[in-house]
Each structure stands twice: as C-alpha cells, then as structure tokens.
Amino acid sequence: LQFLLGMIQKSPDLYLDELQEVLATAAGVEVSRSTITLSDTLILFYKITCVAAEHLAEKCLNYLARIGKYEAEQLVFVDESSVDCRTTYRGRAWSFQGTKAQCKAFFV
Predict the structure, then answer these.
(1) Nearest by Cα to 33 from 43, 20, 23
(2) What is the 3-state secondary structure (H, E, C) of the chain?
(3) How far apart are CA 108 and CA 73, in angstroms?
(4) Of the given ranges (23-32, 48-57, 79-88, 94-103), which has the lowest mean pLDDT?
(5) Who contacts 78 (Cβ-Cβ below 8 Å, separation ≥6)?
(6) Which of 86, 67, 93, 100 is nearest to 7 (CA)?
(7) Do the Cβ atoms of 16 and 38 come closer than 8 Å?
(8) Residues 2-59: pLDDT tens digits?
(9) CA pair distance 4, 7, nearest whole angstrom
(10) What is the CA radius of gyration of the chain?
(11) pTM of the model
(12) Burial category of 38 from C-beta neighbours within 10 Å (exposed 0-12, middle 13-18, buried 19 and up)
C-alpha cells in the first residue's frame, strides 16, 4: 500500500492499468486491476484542476504591494492572448477525499 501511495504522490494521474504495470515491474507483484482499490484509503479519482506552473505566491504578494500605492483610476490592464494546450493533460487524478486533484500546467 505504501508503494502505491508513493506512486500516486509522484504521478497522481496514473490509471489503474498503469498502477498494475508499475506494481508488476517495480515490485514484482502481479494483481488484477480490481484488486487495486484505493477508496478504503480515502484516495479517490477526481477531475483535475490545472494550476499555472508559473504561479508563485510570493510574486503575487510582491505585485499586490507594488500596485497597492496606485488608485484604481490610474491602473490599466491589458489581456494577454494565450493558447490552452491542456488537451495533452489527463482529465482525472488521484487525490485524498475532500481535496482537489491538481496538476501544474504551462499555459502558453
């Protein structure tokens, strides 16, 4: 079980057949997919919420501190165009019950 939990922490978007293959090759344990159940451990397969990999809380706080000295009428924002290439990311990942399944994604 600890091996599976470690694999899920490393790669939370693995499917059951991939976990089965990792168990067979790395740990030498042959099990069926139905044997690999994680609901007893409160780890469930959730829809992924992608978070920008470039997001840093410290940078956000610095930005807010810098613009905080200006009045709202003095600020101008320009929307940057981007392409969403999330089609290369999987839609679901394992996560503890009550927490969001997240992946870091690069938005170009």
Answers:
(1) 20
(2) CHHHHHHHHHCCCCCHHHHHHHHHHHHCCCCCHHHCCCHHHCEEEEEEEEEECCCCHHHHHHHHHHHCCCCHHHCCCCCCCCCCCHHHCCCEEEEECCCCEEEEECCC
(3) 30
(4) 79-88
(5) none
(6) 93
(7) no
(8) 777 788 778 877 888 888 888 888 878 888 877 776 656 656 666 666 666 666 788 8
(9) 5
(10) 20
(11) 0.45
(12) middle
Single-letter code of the amino acid located at 50: C
For the beta carbon of residue 39, count every other beta carbon within 10 angstroms: 9
Task: Give the pair of three-digit tokens for residue 97.
Answer: 């019950």
Token code pair at residue 62: 């610095």
